[in-house]
Amino acid sequence: MPKNAMVILLTILGLLVVSCAPPQQPAAAPKAPPAATSTSAAPTAPAAKPARSPEAKAGGPAPTPKPAADQPRYGGILTLGASADPPSLDPIREASGTLFNVLPSYSGLLQYDPLDNEKVIPDLAERWELSGDGMAYTFHLRKDVKWHDGKPFSAADAAYSVDNQRRVNARKKDLLNAVAGAEAAGENAVKVATKRPFSASLPAWLAVGNMAMAPKHVYDAKGDLRSDVVGTGPFKLKSYSFGISLELVKNQGYFIPGRPYLDGIVVYIIKDRGTLIAAFRTSRIKMPVPYIFVTPTESSIIQKNVPQAVVQPFKSLRFGLFSMKTTDKPWNDVRLRRAVFLAADRQAALKAIGEGEGTLGVTNIAGQWAIPQEELLRQPGFRQPKDADIAEAKRLLAEAGFASGFETRITVRPGYGADLKLAEFMADQLSRIGIRATLDIQESAAWLDRLDRGAYETIVANDGIDITDPDSAASLSVKGNRWFITDEKLFDLFDRQGRTMDSAERKKLVLELQNRVSELAPYVINQWFSHYIAFWPEVRNYRAGVGQHNNSKYQDVWLAK
Hints:
Elements (H helix, E strand, L loop, with lengths): L2 H9 L65 E6 L27 E4 L2 E7 L2 E6 L5 E6 L13 H14 L1 H6 L3 E6 L4 E6 L7 H5 L9 H7 L12 E7 L3 E6 L13 E6 L3 H9 L5 E2 L7 H10 L6 E3 L3 E7 L9 H10 L2 H7 L20 H4 L10 H13 L7 E6 L6 H13 L4 E6 L2 H10 L4 E7 L9 H4 L10 H12 L3 H18 L2 E6 L2 E3 L5 E2 L17 E2 L2
Parallel strand pairs: 1-10, 1-11, 14-15, 14-16
Antiparallel strand pairs: 2-3, 4-5, 5-7, 6-7, 8-9, 9-10, 12-18, 13-16, 13-17, 19-20
Helix pairs in contact: 1-6, 8-11, 15-16
């Protein structure tokens, strides 16, 4: 293990024994309608939910139970550590995980329950319903919400936000591909029309934490929110020193009575992971932001050296990806891409990068919709030993006129998950079939710009999804995707699966879609990562979310001291 990695691992020492008692104040958020078609209004201040005990990692110590008297309390500043600044503060234009730094200032139409992170519940929308023809959702909005600048939140704001999320942001355009348009439906409702009937995944997408509602009046006046934060969330921006820290303060006018508990949040920007984790060990920060993942090795060392610590398993839904620019030479030749797809040793990646944990996959389709692991292990590119795949890869290179290989560049950003490790790993994998790769290292903002513009030959990404529905494939597989894939058969498969209501038939189409990606080989997903979330024991009532952007508001978090 590299010396720096060991330092990182040993420095994450003070961690959580999370336990929560039911708060006496109103709960984090109103209950969701029984189904997407529900017309029953959610109460403004529902009864408090019982607290849930954290799930300890297998083999680790059980959480220490807290006495019943350990009730939520008000006050205190939560200190967080982030690895980078977002490219800008604009919640519509940005989709980077680094936007998590300011997401406590925003709300969405819907959200994932902070205490049950796989359930969609209301946020700015009290309830929602699906039209009889299945071609539109209507979201009925709260009437008691104001922006941080004092102006009322309106249906025009909601329609503007949904419409522009899909227009100006490359990633969100993919995620909201089923949306045809959004418009105000009276003063307190917004209608979101869809391109195909019964787009069941739309509420799940609108609940993702970075699908923030933003103030139309500010965009009308300034054109963007690149350097401003004006939301309806539980915390307001107080100050921001780029590259140093960001300070948020309690929103006294937040629409959930009794929330938030905290007086504020300070996010420190610490680009070096070793330094960030050292700040965590010394309690300068109480937890890293959720896109700073604790790895399997780190979690094991924590539990060995800090017996009272608990590390929560985190369904980050993240994967390591190596992508080739399919529209430019030489990678527009499917034979070259297929050679790389075959040669990449994914099992070796699990050991070298995933620290022995994780799963395999063809595309960013997860859970029950993915090709089963046992079937994958029989397919070219995944089978062991690699001899047959390597031989076929070299044959394809020779057939394409590159028997002696060629040179390429891998664009990568350091300090973001396992990106640099993955780039080095893929450079080694390419060398085994004669492709000579050099690393083009870019800071996060420049890397994102190159990714969105397609200004790369090959690129490494520690990417992720926020829901497991097959529509998550939009960000890697459908027309307009940021990976510049152009294949009408793939687009057709995606559209057909989205229109198919029969789950068995839909699964067949989704499997066919994944097999088509294997044929096109636009990218290699080396692994799906196993991750964990760590924080100090005085941080209460936080549950690791599902996906990197969820559970981002901290409205229910409180400090025990």
